[in-house]
């Protein structure tokens, strides 16, 4: 892979990472509820899910997922169910972070990591994204080092983006401002997640 190809890959991965969606909402919520460490843990584990989808794509398995309507539907419905669960938790939150384990107590780092991983791994649209993305860069007979570089690039850019988001929020006055409005933010996050789940279900109907 040439430097220009790699830079093009980086640009596409960055564009995908910064696109707002449920992943950003989950990172925001864990940062608000537990601080920068929780937000960064969510981001790092989200990147692991991205790496898994990238690996699946490079291995050619994403084609099987997209061609198998039943498998794609199962993953999609599981993702919608997870969004509903997160959305309900957010709506029931008393403030201070929509994904708190219990009132007044932030979720554990493990919980933050699980939420970050699950929100990415239960998103089959990543298979579509990577299939469209990697098809431009994967060539017949491509070395394992080249494949590893592509997978690592996607994961590192995704993880760095969400870690930067968590760091920015936790190291500036933004987090304090958000904390003062945490209950309204929790409700907003809950509504967004439920609407996203509803949209997924409508597309599957």
Automatic annotation (TrEMBL):
GO terms for molecular function: amino acid transmembrane transporter activity. The keyword Cell membrane applies. The chain crosses the membrane at residues 41-63, 126-152, 159-178. It is a multi-pass membrane protein. Residues 1-25 form the signal peptide. InterPro entries: LeuE-type (IPR001123). Pfam families: LysE (PF01810). It comes from the Bacteria. Keywords: Cell membrane, Membrane, Signal, Transmembrane, Transmembrane helix. GO terms for cellular component: plasma membrane. PANTHER family: AMINO ACID EFFLUX PERMEASE RHTB FAMILY (PTHR30086:SF16), ARGININE EXPORTER PROTEIN ARGO (PTHR30086). This is Lysine transporter LysE. It comes from Marinobacterium aestuarii.
